[in-house]
């Protein structure tokens, strides 16, 4: 899965990776600095804001436990609400820099209910994390199995307008199906991060294209871009956030080589490949907890009688 002989090749790759947010990020390399000068373009990157945003309600901002100077300045990653208690995100969003060392639940906060990153609105919900489950075969070198779940201490209040769970993708799409990417990531390489969430419409590319530009491409990965408009792309801070196809959660922003760089695809975790993992580790664990509380409840009811 994550063998030592891959490390040398991978170090080179990791140096040019930059979709990581600062929790799992390497220090920005010179290559990126150079590219930033060459490609000073608006990237989620290339994003837009719809008049009526029907998708932002599914997305949360994952942050540190305490902001530095103002609310939201510690945004690290995006995530998706898959149940009132469970957030789906990328594994690299919940670990230390390029390692497998997991962050503690108390190091993380989830902010739901608002498309604004920096403003506390009446809909803003700030939620503590109770537990982190990262895929045990997540490999920080190949970035395989870049998937994790956050269990919240309290349920997200779902009103269907500002916060809502999203269904997981069970359909298989042909290549070149358009999907929507959402996030608060940088609007261009090393550029600022927006307050109001951005969208970009990109499409899933054929596997051969994904393989051609990443030697570790394998199970559970997919790649996406809009080959007619390379400015549309995910960037630092979009990690962990959703790629939504036909209304369901299909991809998790994972990594890429620069942002909005022509002829470079970006990589996503294929949610459909992990349906069993999500069910076992997410919903499975939840239902067993509920089952136990149900038994306890019954015991109490019987004792009370
Ligand atoms: C990145 O590296 C440079 C030079 O190696 C250093 O000056 C800078 O403080 C580092 N930045 C971070 C965020 O670690
Ligand atoms: C898109 O979603 C609709 C309703 O959720 C479903 O009926 C349809 O089959 C989906 N389309 C594809 C191509 O999966
Ligand atoms: C995503 O995973 C599913 C299930 O493993 C697979 O059938 C599908 O082809 C994958 N999608 C892409 C774009 O690779």
TrEMBL record:
InterPro entries: Peptidase_S1, Peptidase_S1_PA, Peptidase_S1_PA_chymotrypsin, Peptidase_S1A, Trypsin_dom, TRYPSIN_HIS, TRYPSIN_SER
Keywords: Disulfide bond, Hydrolase, Protease, Secreted, Serine protease, Signal
Compartments (UniProt record): Secreted
Signal peptide: 1-25
Stretches assigned to the Peptidase S1 domain: 44-283
Domain of life according to the entry: Eukaryota
Pfam annotation, one family: Trypsin
Secreted keyword on record: yes
Record carries keyword Secreted: yes
PROSITE patterns on file: TRYPSIN_DOM (PS50240), TRYPSIN_HIS (PS00134), TRYPSIN_SER (PS00135)
Residue ranges that the Swiss-Prot or TrEMBL entry lists as coiled coil: none
First-listed, main subcellular location of the protein, grouped into a coarse class: secreted
Family to which this protein belongs: Belongs to the peptidase S1 family.
PANTHER family, sorted: AT26814P-RELATED (PTHR24276:SF91), POLYSERASE-RELATED (PTHR24276)
Official protein name in the record: Anionic trypsin-2-like
Species this chain originates from: Bactrocera dorsalis (Oriental fruit fly)
Encoding gene, per UniProt annotation: LOC125778340
């Amino acid at each position: 899965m994550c063998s030592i002989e891959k490390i040398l090749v991978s170090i080179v790759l990791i140096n040019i990776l930059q979709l990581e947010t600062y929790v799992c990020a390497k220090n920005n390399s010179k290559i990126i600095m150079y590219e930033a000068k060459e490609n000073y373009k608006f990237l989620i990157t290339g994003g837009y804001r719809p008049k009526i945003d029907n998708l932002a309600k599914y997305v949360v901002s994952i942050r540190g436990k305490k902001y530095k100077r103002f609310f939201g300045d510690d945004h690290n990653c995006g995530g998706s609400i898959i149940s009132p208690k469970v957030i789906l995100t990328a594994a690299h969003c919940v670990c230390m820099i390029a390692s497998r060392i997991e962050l503690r639940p108390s190091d993380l906060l989830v902010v739901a209910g608002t498309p604004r990153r920096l403003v506390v609105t009446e809909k803003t919900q700030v939620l503590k994390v109770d537990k982190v489950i990262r895929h045990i075969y997540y490999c920080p070198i190949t970035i395989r199995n870049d998937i994790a779940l956050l269990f919240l201490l309290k349920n997200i209040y779902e009103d269907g307008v500002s916060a809502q769970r999203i269904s997981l993708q069970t359909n298989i799409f042909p290549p070149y199906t358009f999907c929507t990417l959402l996030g608060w990531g940088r609007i261009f390489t090393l550029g600022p991060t927006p307050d109001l969430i951005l969208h970009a419409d990109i499409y899933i590319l054929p596997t051969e294209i994904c393989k051609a530009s990443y030697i570790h491409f394998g199970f559970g990965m997919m790649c996406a871009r809009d080959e007619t408009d390379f400015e549309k792309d995910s960037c630092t801070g979009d990690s962990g956030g959703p790629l939504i196809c036909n209304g369901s959660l299909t991809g998790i922003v994972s990594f890429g080589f620069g942002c909005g760089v022509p002829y470079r695809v970006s990589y996503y975790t294929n949610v459909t490949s992990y349906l069993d993992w999500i069910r076992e580790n997410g919903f499975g664990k939840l239902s067993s907890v509920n089952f136990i509380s149900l038994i306890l409840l019954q015991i109490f009811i019987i004792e009370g009688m």
